[in-house]
User: Fold these one by one.
Assistant:
Number 1:
Amino acid sequence: MKKKKKKGHNKKRIRKKKINEKKNNNESEKKNKKKLFGMKQRENEKAEEEKSINEKEKKPTDRRYFQCKIDMTFVEDSKALMFAI
């Protein structure tokens, strides 16, 4: 009669391999996420810098710019008048 092979050992080894693969995949995914997050932060910083540069270079001839300035001065003057009266 032939001896039967013991079945448990190989299954355990396969299970350990799968667990290790999952751990390695998770670690590599975390590293990739960190890289992507860093890249997104750099892109956001560049975009903010460009916006600030564009705002500085914004021409004062823009109607909205003058409108805002006039409205603010009007509000401040009206408050001063209210307190004066």
Note: Residues 47 and 63 are 25 Å apart (CA to CA).
Number 2:
Amino acid sequence: MLNHIVAGYTLSLLETCVKNCGYRFHIVLANREALHDFTKFLQPGGNDLIPIRIQDKLLRIIQVNKNSSIYTRHFLLLLDNHKE
């Protein structure tokens, strides 16, 4: 069972790291295993137990990174997976 409070804090930490860490962190974050885990959270109807606010926070992290100056091509994989 997912602890939503822990998930919220984890996403806050991830958001801080995405904003403040460099290219190497983004490469690690964009590996296929991490992308697969992210897309599980974002699948429509895939996991109804995850609150919308947690899903929205994850999408906001992706969007902030997309709009930042340190955007890398590796996050295109995540965005493409979400669109499918």
Note: The chain has one domain: 4-83.
